[in-house]
Amino acid sequence: MADPELEAIRKRRMQELMARQGMGQGSQQNPEQQKAQEDAKREAEERRQMMLSQILSAEARERLARIALVKPDKARGVEDVILRAAQMGQIAEKVSEERLISLLEQINTQTTKQTKVTIQRRRSVLDDDD
């Protein structure tokens, strides 16, 4: 009889803990903080896109947008490289599509993963080499 009571107590305690964690995350301050964080992220992304539009030519922006559709993480990395170079003063003029392609090729050679395929053939019990 102690086991069902113990289980009931554990369930209630677990529900209380879950409710407390939910309350801590869902308190009145948190929606305001979440909204502020989302606004800050949105504003930072807008600034980032504005800087990229000033640095990249129209064709390069278009190509980067197409890359972002297929590989968003790769496009983000290329954007980071371009923005860093611009902040360091290494980019004096707008980045053309050809320059973007060469940059992509450089990044590809640096980050190319070496894949190795190993085939293991299993022998059947019925196959005899005798």
UniProtKB/TrEMBL annotation:
<dbReference type="GO" id="GO:0005634">
    <property type="term" value="C:nucleus"/>
</dbReference>
<dbReference type="GO" id="GO:0005829">
    <property type="term" value="C:cytosol"/>
</dbReference>
<dbReference type="Pfam" id="PF01984">
    <property type="entry name" value="dsDNA_bind"/>
</dbReference>
<protein>
    <recommendedName>
        <fullName>DNA-binding protein DDB_G0278111-like</fullName>
    </recommendedName>
</protein>
<comment type="similarity">
    <text>Belongs to the PDCD5 family.</text>
</comment>
<feature type="region of interest" description="Disordered">
    <location>
        <begin position="16"/>
        <end position="47"/>
    </location>
</feature>
<dbReference type="InterPro" id="IPR036883">
    <property type="entry name" value="PDCD5-like_sf"/>
</dbReference>
<dbReference type="InterPro" id="IPR002836">
    <property type="entry name" value="PDCD5-like"/>
</dbReference>
<dbReference type="GO" id="GO:0003677">
    <property type="term" value="F:DNA binding"/>
</dbReference>
<feature type="compositionally biased region" description="Basic and acidic residues">
    <location>
        <begin position="35"/>
        <end position="47"/>
    </location>
</feature>
